[in-house]
């Protein structure tokens, strides 16, 4: 709906659609620009008060306003309102969306256009290093909950002429700002068009959990696919490295995470720590992390399988200290230890930083020792469980590690109840679940292993030196499937 040329009608329309009298944070002022009546509307706390004070002080200064009336709103905007971020708007929907996002609006008698003054400011925390993606060397900044700051962190690192931040609005009620970032000459145009169409077609009330909600709206997964389908990062250097390789980024206001498209399983094994070390050292630790994935997934199920169903081999290999354990008791021990380790990890992650370290160490020592004394666990089971936990913590992405944990529990259950047949059946189900994990654009989740791409796989497995690591071309992942 368009504005009216009558200022009183516009004010009544605002009062009917916005709770400017009931809500304390709305700022309104009746002004005179010379002899021309005007009306100001903004949100307290979202506007830079000192900037607005200077603007209206100039507009109401008799020596500055030589004309008694505003005769041409375009000329008035260009000649009198010197603030850089000011524009005209004629639709109520756009005006309300802007006001609720932070910019202020100035309505002038006799004109069906309003002046938007983008003097917004948001409460924000410092750009400190993310807790979940620390590095021993390198940059210490991280994304925050303010979309503009996150765009600035990317623009500061990538000064390409073709870098684009395409703004969109998602959520009928929340009207959350969502920015799609890409480099024009390197992006997959087909994938970009598909993503933009999907964003415009989203029918959702709000993005309750920010970037995570948007991820679930863009990629629909089944309950049997626990692994993440979209890579998320809070590090600007990681986001920019993917951007330079032709990937697409999505920035969501009020979320410190940035979504990366397209995504495969190998992206969750990468860590920026590799590139802040020498190529040989970085390659070694990258291969260690790759090894941690099968260790985290298979160590406990294989331990249960060998001890419970092949005891002679276990005794020959010296895998068990207590040879008197029955199959049922060993199965119970492993389930109990898995639950306790998950409980420790969950409680320490939610505890204050002042207590989480001591809580996990002291709690693990006390409960582990008491559990062995009460025959609720055995020392060897605790050892293998501890190795499994260390391997899980070494996986770079926590959401990926949590998905591996669910697969491990499935394998332990199948092995405990059905032996070797249950282990093989659950392992087959796990591999099928991993291979069929959906991705945005329909690319293979196992690329470049399937379809096989030798050069791309080599780049993922081995840390290349900086001259060789420059993205000379964009990897071909196949066709986009809508």
Descriptive account of the structure:
By secondary structure, this protein is α+β, with helices and mostly antiparallel strands. It has 16 helices and 10 strands. The strands form 2 sheets. A 5-stranded antiparallel beta sheet has the order 1-2-4-5-3, with helices on both faces. The chain has a 5-stranded antiparallel beta sheet with strand order 6-7-9-10-8, sandwiched between helices. The two termini are 35 Å apart. The model has no long low-confidence stretch (mean pLDDT 86).
**How would you sum up the global shape?**
elongated
Total of helices:
16
Spatial strand sequence of the major β-sheet: 1-2-4-5-3
Task: Please tell me how large the radius of gyration is.
Answer: 29 Å
Total DSSP E strands:
10
Give the SSE string.
HEEHHEHEEHEEHHEHEEHHHHHHHH
Kindly report the average pLDDT value: 86
N-to-C CA distance: 35 Å
**Proportion of residues in extended strands:** 5-15%
Note the main sheet: 5 strands, antiparallel
Detail the poorly predicted runs.
Answer: none
Helix content: 40-55%
Q: What structural class should be given to the helix and strand makeup?
A: alpha+beta
Summary, kept brief:
With 482 residues, this protein is of the alpha+beta class. It is built from 16 helices and 10 strands.
């Amino acid at each position: 709906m368009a504005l009216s040329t009558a200022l009183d009608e516009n004010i009544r329309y605002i009062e009917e659609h916005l709770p400017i009298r009931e809500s304390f944070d709305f700022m309104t002022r009746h002004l005179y620009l010379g002899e021309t009546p005007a009306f100001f509307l903004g949100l307290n706390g979202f506007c830079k008060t000192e900037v607005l004070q200077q603007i209206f002080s100039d507009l109401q200064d008799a020596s500055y306003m030589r004309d008694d009336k505003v005769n041409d709103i375009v000329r008035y905007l260009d000649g009198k309102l010197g603030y850089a971020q000011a524009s005209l708007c004629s639709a109520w929907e756009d005006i309300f969306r802007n006001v609720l996002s932070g910019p202020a609006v100035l309505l002038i008698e006799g004109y069906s256009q309003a002046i938007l003054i983008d003097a917004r400011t948001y409460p924000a925390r410092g750009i400190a290093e993310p807790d979940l993606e620390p590095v021993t060397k390198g940059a210490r900044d991280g994304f925050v909950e303010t979309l503009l700051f996150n765009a600035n962190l990317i623009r500061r690192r990538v000064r390409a002429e073709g870098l684009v931040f395409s703004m969109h609005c998602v959520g009928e009620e929340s009207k959350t700002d969502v920015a799609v970032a890409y480099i024009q000459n390197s992006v997959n145009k087909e994938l970009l068009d598909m993503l933009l169409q999907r964003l415009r077609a989203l029918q959702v009330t709000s993005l309750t959990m920010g970037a995570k909600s948007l991820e679930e709206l863009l990629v629909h997964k089944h309950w049997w696919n626990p692994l993440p389908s979209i890579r998320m990062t809070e590090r600007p250097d990681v986001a920019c490295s993917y951007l330079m390789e032709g990937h697409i980024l999505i920035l969501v206001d009020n979320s410190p995470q940035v979504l990366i498209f397209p995504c495969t399983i190998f992206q969750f094994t990468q860590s920026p720590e590799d590139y802040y070390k020498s190529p040989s050292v970085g390659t070694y630790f990258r291969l260690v992390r790759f090894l941690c994935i099968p260790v985290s997934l298979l160590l406990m199920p294989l331990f249960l399988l060998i001890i419970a169903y092949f005891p002679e081999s276990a005794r020959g290999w010296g895998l068990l200290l207590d040879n008197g354990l029955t199959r049922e008791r060993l199965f119970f021990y492993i389930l109990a230890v898995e639950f306790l380790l998950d409980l420790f990890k969950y409680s320490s992650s939610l505890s204050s930083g002042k207590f989480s370290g001591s809580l996990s160490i002291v709690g693990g020592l006390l409960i582990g020792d008491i559990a062995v004394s009460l025959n609720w666990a055995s020392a060897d089971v605790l050892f293998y469980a501890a190795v499994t936990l260390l391997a899980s913590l070494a996986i770079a992405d926590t959401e990926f590690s949590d998905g591996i944990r669910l697969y491990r529990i499935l394998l332990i259950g199948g092995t405990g109840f059905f032996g070797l047949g249950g282990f093989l059946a659950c392992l087959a189900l796990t591999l099928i679940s991993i291979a069929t994990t959906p991705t945005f654009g329909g690319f293979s989740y196992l690329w470049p292993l399937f379809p096989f791409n030798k050069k791309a796989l080599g780049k993922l497995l081995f840390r290349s030196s900086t001259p060789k690591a420059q993205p000379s071309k964009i990897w071909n992942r196949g066709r986009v499937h809508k």
